[in-house]
Amino acid sequence: MKLLLINPNTTAAMTANIAEAARAAASPGTEVLAVQPSFGPASIEGFFDEAIAAAGVAEQMRLAGDRIDAAVIACFGDPGLDAAREATRAPVLGIAEAAFHIASMISTGFSVVTTMTRTCVIAEHLLHKYGFERRCRGVHGTDIPVLALEDGGLGSMAQIEDCARQALARDRSGAIVLGCAGMAGLCAALQQKLGVPVIDGVAAAVQLAQALHGLGLKTSAVGDYAPPLPKAYTGWAAPLGW
Ligand code: 2AL
């Protein structure tokens, strides 16, 4: 199957790291096509970054159309997820959404460990939107900037581990969800150190995308995710119109 992996930020090194994590998680026969928007923020650490990044995700979905079997949006704010689901019939998963689902299947309660404290509210909004507010027991910021994770997160390992240990104790959680695509490379080592399941949303979304494809399921074209209505788009968005 052809899996489109969208890094919603414009840092090419991060796109490459996320692609490596996705390929490591993918089953044989899954081709991972990794892309990033042609415009937008180098990292997504707040609402403004996220608004522009969502348009970048829409751009990449528009370019891909129905030539893919599934897509994954690899930023923990799941920017542009609903828009992407209107733009293609292929199933589209956000990494936060995928991680919340997986974590809730293997624990009664989980904690999220993320980057900047200011991004915690974005994860909290998603937990409410997806209905996971009763399963998540806390969202914790480390104040590590997203691009500081570009070495695979190795330089930040001790800080993330410390935050996760405190979260597990304070929240009485049974699992940790990593709150940034840039943390994917830390997942296995952290799980070993912490002794609880650690969920990387990139791997979770790749596996769930494969499952949906294997089940022959597509996004419903009826109702809320119907294709966009034809109309003119203007300015820089003109090529994105339907
Ligand atoms: C992210 C992420 O996954 N990519 C990015 O640019 N920002 N998430 C976050 N919590 O900071």
TrEMBL record:
<dbReference type="InterPro" id="IPR015942">
    <property type="entry name" value="Asp/Glu/hydantoin_racemase"/>
</dbReference>
<dbReference type="InterPro" id="IPR052186">
    <property type="entry name" value="Hydantoin_racemase-like"/>
</dbReference>
<dbReference type="InterPro" id="IPR053714">
    <property type="entry name" value="Iso_Racemase_Enz_sf"/>
</dbReference>
<protein>
    <submittedName>
        <fullName>Aspartate/glutamate racemase family protein</fullName>
    </submittedName>
</protein>
<comment type="similarity">
    <text>Belongs to the HyuE racemase family.</text>
</comment>
<dbReference type="Pfam" id="PF01177">
    <property type="entry name" value="Asp_Glu_race"/>
</dbReference>
